[in-house]
Design brief:
Number of helices: 14
CATH topology of the largest domain: Immunoglobulin-like
Number of domains: 3
CATH class of the largest domain: Mainly Beta
Structural class: alpha+beta
Shape: globular
Oligomer: single chain
Helix content: 25-40%
Distance between the termini: 36 Å
Radius of gyration: 24 Å
Strand content: 15-25%
Number of strands: 17
């Protein structure tokens, strides 16, 4: 396949597949709120899709959807007259309205500034607010009992304008970076991605007319740009000029991605080229076409390879950070840490016991932990032990025990599952 075909198919592979269902949920929520706050049956009035979905930069598996709902001025003035109790009263009234539409089987929760309505595999966060004549929204914060201003319309307009000026490459890049984020397990918010990609295209023009055949070099340049950015606590959102927090250091992973993009460009065989692209973007990047020259041994490997992929089981929408660590044990004594051994470029000896555990996690409770242990290498193939099943945490202690039975470059991956969505993933290589 040509580069153009690969990236065109990649864009199609990550398109939101449940858009019709999401639109129905938005309409149902809007209709219910309009009945109670505006005495209207409209399923479109007084509402605005915001966030990634509103900017049209969301991808398949998006689990955190946002909408603003305009409160009538008289009603909003009443809430403001209640002082610090105003924000909570407003959100409680919105929750009560939505409860008329959804029974107790659907979780509805007031959380800070929004009312969340939780469906299977995604939830909609409703931001009730007063919309002024400039199209800006004043909303309440139940954490502080105060009122705040947000400006989603200028952000949407700015992204749309630059997108049209860059041959739709801006939004394509935003979507593909989300798939990269989900693949590498990077806690990087959607608005930050859109802001940084916006800045990339705004500051340079060599990719304004790019087509899919030009995407390999475009992504080398984009990831290089991200990797070279100075570390900051926040950036300024396009259009609104509001602060966008940076929750983690993305530069090291961006630099690694830039290197792999260049390796894909330099590859002379299509299978190797696609392999490099998949290392960057993950499972949804198209596979190389099957060839008739595959050896019988390759076919045999596939017949006993038990590897599973989290993307095939549930939606992946990385919003939090999780990290897995490993101990090398002899009996009950800890002999070494696996990350330390990797830094020393030392392999873990055979015949050792290993304990993997979650060392860091900022996912709010409750959530579940799933594990994947992948054995690779010639010995694993010879013994027909190409593992890779995804299994739930056995004892609830967020740990997993293994033994070093044969040599090879293996890895362990951990997933945090919340409300039916993988919201964090971490990976640890194990060299034996």
């Amino acid at each position: 396949m040509s580069d153009a075909s690969l990236f065109s198919q990649f864009r199609d592979n990550i398109a939101v597949s449940n858009a019709a269902d999401i639109s129905t949920k938005y309409a149902n929520i809007t209709t219910r709120l309009n009945k109670d706050f505006w005495d209207s049956d409209s399923d479109t009035a007084h509402t605005l899709q915001i966030g990634s979905y509103g900017r049209r930069t969301a991808i398949d598996g998006v689990s955190d959807l946002d909408m603003a709902f305009s409160i009538p001025k008289a009603k909003f003035d009443h809430y403001k007259s209640l002082g610090s109790d105003g924000p909570k009263t407003m959100l409680d009234d919105v929750k009560a309205s939505l409860r008329k539409r959804y029974d107790n089987g659907t979780k509805i929760k007031v959380d800070g500034q929004v009312v969340g309505v939780f469906f299977s595999n995604y939830h909609v966060e409703v931001l009730p607010a007063y919309e002024d004549s400039d199209g800006n929204f004043t909303h309440g914060d139940t954490n502080t009992g105060t009122w705040k201003l947000t400006k989603p319309r200028p952000e949407i307009e700015a992204v749309n304008k630059l997108n049209s000026e860059t041959n739709w490459n801006l939004k394509n890049a935003c979507k593909m970076l989300r798939e990269w984020r989900n693949h590498v397990g990077l806690k990087m918010g959607g608005l930050l991605i859109d802001t940084l990609v916006y800045n990339f295209f705004d500051e340079r023009n060599e990719h304004d007319e790019a087509t899919f055949k030009d995407y390999p070099q475009m992504f080398v340049d984009l990831f290089t740009y991200l990797g070279d950015l100075a570390e900051q606590d926040y950036w300024w959102a396009p259009g609104s000029n509001q602060r966008v927090k940076c929750k983690t250091k993305f530069q090291p992973k961006a630099k690694k991605a830039a290197k792999r993009c260049q390796e894909a460009i330099d590859a002379t065989e299509e299978s190797k080229k696609v392999k490099h692209w998949k290392k960057v973007f993950g499972r949804k990047f198209p596979a190389a076409p099957a060839t008739t020259t595959a050896s019988d041994r390759s076919v045999l490997i596939l017949s006993f390879d038990r590897e599973q992929f989290i993307e095939d089981s549930i939606p992946v929408d990385i919003r939090y950070h999780i990290e897995v660590e490993g101990e090398v044990r002899v009996g009950n004594a800890v002999q070494d840490r696996i990350r330390q051994a990797l830094r020393r470029r030392e392999r873990v000896p055979l015949g050792r016991h290993l304990r993997f555990y979650v060392s860091e996690c900022d996912v709010p409770e409750p959530y579940a932990i799933w594990w994947k242990v992948r054995n690779q290498g010639p010995v694993a193939i010879e013994r027909k032990m190409l593992r890779g099943e995804i299994t739930p945490d056995a004892d609830g202690l967020k740990q997993k025990y293994e033994t070093t039975d044969f040599s090879g470059d293996h890895y362990v991956e951990v997933y945090a599952i919340k409300d039916g969505v993988c919201v964090a993933r971490g990976k640890l290589k194990v060299a034996l």
